Amino acid sequence: MKLLGRTALAAFAVSLGVFAAQAEGLDEIGADVVERLYNPEMIDPAQPIGASSLRDFVAKNPPPWKIGYASTYAGNTWRAGAMDHLQTVVIPKWQELGMVSEVVITQSNLDDATQIQQMRQLVDQGVDAIVICCSNPTALNATVKYAYDQGVPTFSFTGYVTEPTVLNTSVNFQAAGFEIGKRMAEELGGKGNVLVVEGIPGTSTSDSQDRGIKAGLATAPDIKVVGSIAGMWTDQIAQGEVQKWIATHPGKLDGIIVQSAAEMGVIRAVNQSGREGVKIAVGGELGALCTWRKNPDLIASAVQTWPPGDDIELSFDVMMRTLQGQGPKVQSILVDPVVVTHEEVMELLPEDCDETAGNWLNMGGDVWASAEYLDQFFVNPADPTKYKP
Question: Model-level pTM?
Answer without folding.
Answer: 0.91
